[in-house]
Amino acid sequence: MTIPTWKLPPGVSRGTWDYLQSPHIASDYDRYFADHPLLRLDIAEVIKRLPPLDRQPPASPPPLVADLGCGTGRVSRALSPLGFRLLNVDLSEHMLDQLMQQSQHPAQNACLRANLVELDCLEPASLDMAVCLFSSIGMIRGRQHRQRFVAAVYRALKPGAEFFLHAHNRYHSLWDPSGPAWLAHTRWKSWTNRDWEFGDRVYSYRGLPAMFLHIYSRGELRHDLRKAGFERLEFMAINRTGDALLKRRPWNALRAGGYFVAARRNISPS
User: Fold this and answer.
1) Considering the entire predicted model, what is its pTM?
2) pLDDT exceeding 90 applies to what percent of the chain?
């Protein structure tokens, strides 16, 4: 569906809208990323951090995990067989259609077509865990919109529940041949264009000419999570190939290809 730029949902760029509306992106998604090591590593880390099934009150339903920017449902395919309920959220109708067509546990899966910036529909303190993987948070354009998303996740989590997310590392670009020039360009553009932020990137992707991604610094991500109320932040640096975590070293703020971050909602419901 073609709509005027001024009618795009908040936080959604023209390139992202085209991505979300493209049937071929959804139908080819799993094949395209079949061998991507990061998509195995993140699932393994999520499984380590799941709320325990054996500690649920008697007669209560299994824990509810929200996959925010779920795509075709790879998190659902990993967690549903373990007994978890999934709330799969994506703005792409094509992605959600693929998810349900492939699901072998439809009774454990609910789908919500929604913009990540507009999650006020989520019931407060209803989620046992939330995940936002493969830099889906970076697809939101505008820091105020990304902050609004993080705040909505905080409200929807139960006290003590965890938000697990992934973001690429802006300063890893220093190790790429064209990276320093890109850093200088995006910094300069952030000073001269009020609609551009340091870390924004627009690039060609799978036949789409203007895909958008905001690439975080560790400090920016920490600030936005803290602002929403999250505490006990745990940053896990990922190596440049995406197949392993790096040891905790100060210089990994530059070396890491990206980060997993585990952020916990305060125990107090206030």
Assistant:
1) 0.95
2) 89
